[in-house]
Amino acid sequence: MEFESNETNDLDLGVEKNFRQYTLFDICKDPGLKDDEGNEVPRPFTKNQMRKWLKKVRWENNKQGKRAKEKARAKERRRNARVANIDLGPSRKTLKKMKLEKPKKDIGIIIDLSFDHLMMEKDRFKVIKQILRCYSINRRSETPLQFHITSLGEKAKSDMSRHNGFENWDIEYHEQPYTEIFPKDKLVYLSSESDNVIEKFEEDTYYIIGGLVDHNKHKGLCHKIAVEQGIRHCQLPLNKYVNMKTRKVLTIDHVFEIVVKVCEGVPWQDAILDVLPHRKGAYICNSSNDSNTIDDCSKVQIVHDSL
After folding, report:
1. Which has more confidence, 6 or 106?
2. How deeply is 297 buried, as exposed, middle or buried, from its count of CB atoms within 10 A (0-12, 13-18, 19+)?
3. Angle at which helices 252-263 and 268-275 pack, to 10 degrees?
4. SS3 breakdown of the chain: % helix, strand, coil, rounded to 5?
5. What Cα–Cα distance (Å) separates residue 270 from each residue in 150, 186, 241, 266, 302?
6. Which of 69-83, 182-196, 252-266, 289-303 is predicted with the least confidence, judged by mean pLDDT?
7. Is 263 among the annotated ligand-binding positions?
């Protein structure tokens, strides 16, 4: 690969000499790379873009080494746990075997990945990270749910390919949108903007979570989509069981985990309080009526154990 540089006298075709190491700041143009078929692969050329590109290259080069270190740390952790007689839960190998043996409930969760065009790269990575946690939660559940990902585009595939073996996860991947796969009367979109409050999850029904990290830039988008598509929509009963200091907008994995826990038989209030992060500052509601006012909630803030 060749770079055009501001240095004009470094190259002398007639004399062999040692070339100095170019830095990022010497580069004014990047001609790009070519793939195995000879097609030019576009590459960024601004200094900021090059920094990002070099960061990706370093990440790819170090990925196997990091994975090996993670395995070594996990092995050491298990060894120390055995000595201290501490149960760390099932191993990865056991979980892989369990996923074939555990019967799944006739309830499905769909993560809708049709929002790639609305997110920056770092936000797309956050979505994938939350999907990783959803996968882990479902694998460890005693009654796992049917897990689907729809509208899996090229960007999402590229983002997920950063995690080796993702195609072998116990997830059903679909390139098509959910409306082309499931009957509309079986679909329910979970949205905090909906006026409908869910109390129980129905059998033979698929609940959709929007795969969007937008920092409130596209407020109400999932609800709007559900209305336009003519499918049912509802919100979790957060107001009925807890009150929070912050907005009642949860991450993908928080919604997923609450749904899984409730489907396992955990009461709504216990499931919500167990999943909500510390920063939400949740308050317990004394009453179980349908009122959404703060008066129904106790003024004693929940203190989470930090251990």
Report:
1. 106
2. buried
3. 150
4. 40, 15, 45
5. 30, 27, 9, 7, 12
6. 289-303
7. no
Asked if 78 and 88 count as a contact pair (C-beta separation under 8 A), the reply is: yes
222 has binding-site annotation: yes
The pLDDT tens digits of the residues spanning 34-75 come to: 656 666 655 556 777 777 777 777 777 777 788 788 888 888
Beta-ladder partners of 242: 284
Q: Are 7 and 26 in contact (CB under 8 A)?
A: yes
The residue ranking higher by pLDDT, 269 or 66, is 269
255-292 burial, b for 16+ CB within 10 Å, e for fewer? bbbbbbbbbeeeebbebbbebbeeebebbbbeeeeeee
Catalytic residues: 214
Return the bridge partners of 112, or none: 150, 210
CB distance 186 to 108 below 8 Å:
no
For CA atoms 80, 86, 89, 90, give the dihedral sign.
Answer: positive
Decide: 168 and 139 in contact? Cβ < 8 Å: no
| 100 marked as binding residue | no
φ and ψ at residue 280, rounded to 5 degrees: -70, -20
Q: Label residues 199-231 b or e (16+ Cβ within 10 Å = b).
A: eebeeeebbbbbbbbeeeeeeebbbebbeeeeb
d(CA 190, CA 196): 10
Q: What are phi and psi of 27, to 5 degrees?
A: -85, 125
pLDDT band at 140 (very low <50, low <70, confident <90, very high): confident
**Largest CA-CA distance found in the chain, in angstroms, rounded:** 88
Q: Would the annotation count 265 as a binding residue?
A: no
Strands 242-243 and 283-285: antiparallel
Instruction: Answer for the pair 220, 193: CB distance below 8 angstroms, yes or no.
Output: yes
